[in-house]
Design brief:
Blueprint: H1 2-20, H2 27-47, H3 54-66, H4 73-92, H5 99-124, H6 130-155, E1 159-161, E2 165-169, H7 170-195, E3 201-202, H8 204-232, H9 247-251, H10 254-267, E4 271-272
Antiparallel strand pairs: 1-2, 3-4
Helix pairs in contact: 2-3, 2-5, 3-4, 3-5, 4-5, 5-6, 5-10, 6-7, 6-8, 6-10, 7-8, 8-10
């Protein structure tokens, strides 16, 4: 548990540093998201047993690296080229691969980099408050996970999805939701009163919605990738983060919460001048 907490604290400090240096080096977020995206896709490639099939792995990793730097029509073009390369490889090397492998890889490469890229899109929504949006998207997923972990450890009795993730409990899910809502509201207080001294106002309604539904999406992301791990007969996607496993083990929930926060903030402003 100590190792898990320490690794989580280091990750939180790392993202805090990106926030602090965003104005002087805004490309830092794109680079970090690209590194996370590439590592996550590589972990998935290994889990699917495709690491030695370079003709599938190479286009997947290239797309994962490029998407965080693209948006709009450019991102669409990257995925068009990825589709062309991947299915061409399937036809050329049809005796060495299957459509099932290609289909699984294709869907995950579309999901993972594009979902993580919404962190960059969140930053670009506002010159003044964009990085606050990014932090909220990441924290909502991680706080829900931490809250569910401790609530489940101390109060968990009823299994949530025993066939997919035996340790997850209904009590843990409820605890994660409560902790996430409280944490999001506290972030609003910090943003409004401490950071901007009342000169900018966070929307507590939007933060409440993010905490409520973000925790649900966090569980959905966690369970979805747990099912993938079970189907691949592995415990973790990697060992990059001590106590947590691989990058995908830590960012599986962010992959689901970040797009939700982006869509929500696009309709309901999270912060105002």
């Amino acid at each position: 548990m100590k190792q898990r907490i320490l690794s989580g604290a280091i990750l939180a400090l790392f993202f805090a540093a990106i926030v602090l240096f965003n104005q002087s080096f805004p490309l830092a977020l794109n680079i970090v998201v690209a590194l996370i995206s590439v590592t996550a896709v590589f972990e998935l490639v290994k889990a699917l047993g495709l690491a030695r099939k370079w003709f599938l792995a190479a286009p997947a990793l290239a797309a994962a690296a490029l998407v965080p730097f693209c948006k709009g029509n450019v991102q669409f073009l990257v995925y068009c080229l990825f589709t062309l390369l991947l299915f061409s490889a399937m036809l050329i090397y049809h005796q060495e691969t299957t459509f099932k492998e290609v289909g699984m890889l294709y869907s995950m490469v579309v999901l993972i980099p594009s979902a993580l890229q919404t962190l960059v899109s969140l930053r670009d929504l506002s010159d003044n408050h964009g990085m606050f949006y990014v932090l909220i998207a990441v924290l909502s997923a991680w706080v829900a996970d931490v809250g569910a972990y401790f609530a489940g450890t101390f109060f968990g009795k009823h299994k949530l999805c025993p066939n997919i993730s035996p340790k997850k409990t209904i009590e843990g899910a409820i605890g994660g939701m409560v902790v996430d809502v409280v944490a999001m509201l506290l972030c609003g207080v910090f943003f409004t009163e401490l950071y901007h001294h009342g000169n900018a106002q966070a929307s507590y309604l939007v933060l409440f919605i993010i905490g409520l539904f973000g925790s649900v999406l966090s569980i959905l992301g966690d369970l979805s990738f747990s099912l993938i791990k079970r189907s691949c007969h592995i415990k973790d996607f990697g060992q990059v983060i001590p106590g947590h496993g691989g990058i995908l083990d830590r960012f599986d929930s962010v992959i689901f919460t970040a797009p939700f926060v982006y869509l929500l903030v696009g309709f309901l402003p999270l912060a105002g001048a």
